[in-house]
């Protein structure tokens, strides 16, 4: 990364801008969030993601479109680890397929687990579904942040918050109680059984929703002391209604794993200043699924 900061002006600028971002803490009911004012995120937060725009734009993750000074590290001949030019964290990477294939979870679960293990214990890998905050829904990618930079990672290991709903075949599942949005935590030390469980969960989930499409979800994945932990955040909506308002009422927030995880990014100063507990709580409830969903999915599994 240091090398890229020296040779890629956009990245130098991105990290210089990160230095001057502002963060404030907001206490919501039973949880806290950090809100970051980060103007560099405007292109991602404000991205137009309709099919036509996506088809017509040059994909910024495709190899042939990467800026000349941007270099990556090849991973297992299929993925490239790249520095994110608009960082939210002091170390923020994009892990992108070398092929232009759609953002899709089921076929990339094993690479998610393997990458997370290979980057452990210092990093968390996160996934934003194509309709759940990903700004390149047409190009398979994950992102990488420093471990525990996102508040939910700490809340997820607080045993007083947890309610166990599942334990079978070396895979455990629980939810966080009274958390203002639904967080399903899955843990296992057994890679194969975990993969099987995750595949089954996706099938049962589609079943509950009555769709063949990938369920909307954000996932944060970490690995410590032989244990994988996935925090799954089921989504109902890609963006909240306030995002689409005209004029002063508009709030430019496009929630993805980081935001729903409790680190809310606002590219506009006016939104940073007006953000309060009431607004955050209502956005979280609006864009995430209710807690009953997890119980329904687990019932389908039995
Ligand atoms: Zn692409």
Q: What is shown here, in short?
A:
The protein is built from eleven helices and 13 strands.
List keywords for this structure.
ten-stranded antiparallel beta sheet, 26% strand, single chain, alpha+beta, 302 residues, binds zinc ion, 11 helices, three-stranded mixed beta sheet, 31% helix
What is the average per-residue confidence, as pLDDT, rounded to a whole number?
94
What is the succession of H and E elements?
HHEEHHEEEHEEHEEEHEEHEHHH
Distance between the termini: 46 Å
Share in helix: 25-40%
Overall radius of gyration: 19 Å
Which regions are unreliable across 5 or more consecutive residues at pLDDT < 50?
A: none
Biggest sheet strand order reads: 3-4-5-7-6-11-12-10-9-8
Helical stretch count?
11
State the shape. Answer: globular
Strand content bin = 25-35%
Which small molecules are bound? zinc ion
Largest sheet: 10 strands, antiparallel
Number of strands: 13
Please state the structural category. alpha+beta
Kindly describe this structure:
This protein is 31% helix and 26% strand. The protein is of the alpha+beta class. Strands 3-4-5-7-6-11-12-10-9-8 form a 10-stranded antiparallel sheet. Strands 1-2-13 form a 3-stranded mixed sheet. A hairpin with a 3-residue loop joins strand 3 and strand 4 (79-83). The radius of gyration is 19 Å and the shape is globular. The model has no long low-confidence stretch (mean pLDDT 94). It binds zinc ion. The site of zinc ion has 5 residues, from loops.
């Amino acid at each position: 990364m240091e090398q890229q900061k020296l040779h890629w002006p956009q990245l130098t600028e991105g990290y210089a801008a990160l230095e001057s971002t502002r963060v404030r803490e907001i206490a919501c009911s039973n949880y806290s969030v950090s809100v970051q004012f980060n103007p560099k995120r405007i292109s991602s937060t404000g991205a137009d993601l309709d099919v036509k725009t996506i088809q017509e734009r040059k994909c910024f993750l495709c190899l042939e479109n990467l800026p000349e000074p941007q270099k990556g590290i090849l991973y297992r001949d299929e993925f490239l680890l790249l520095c994110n030019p608009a960082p939210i964290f002091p170390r923020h990477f994009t892990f992108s397929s070398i092929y232009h294939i759609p953002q899709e979870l089921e076929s990339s679960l094993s690479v998610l687990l393997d990458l997370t293990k290979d980057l452990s214990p210092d990093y968390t890998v996160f996934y934003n579904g194509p309709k759940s905050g990903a700004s390149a829904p047409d190009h398979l990618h994950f992102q990488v942040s420093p471990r525990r930079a996102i508040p939910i990672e700490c809340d997820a290991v607080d045993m007083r918050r947890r309610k166990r709903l599942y334990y079978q075949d070396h895979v455990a599942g629980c939810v966080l109680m009274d958390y203002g949005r639904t967080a399903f935590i899955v843990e296992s030390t057994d890679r194969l059984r975990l993969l099987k469980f995750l595949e089954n969960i996706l099938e049962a989930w589609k079943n509950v929703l009555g769709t063949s499409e990938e369920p909307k979800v954000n996932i944060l994945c970490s690995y410590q002391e032989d244990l994988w932990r996935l925090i799954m955040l089921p989504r109902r909506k890609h963006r909240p209604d306030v995002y689409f308002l005209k004029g002063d009422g508009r709030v430019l927030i496009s929630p993805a794993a980081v935001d729903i995880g409790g680190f809310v990014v606002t590219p506009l100063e006016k939104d940073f200043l007006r953000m309060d507990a009431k607004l955050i709580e209502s956005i979280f409830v609006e864009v995430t699924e209710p807690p009953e969903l997890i119980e329904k999915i687990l019932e389908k599994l039995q």
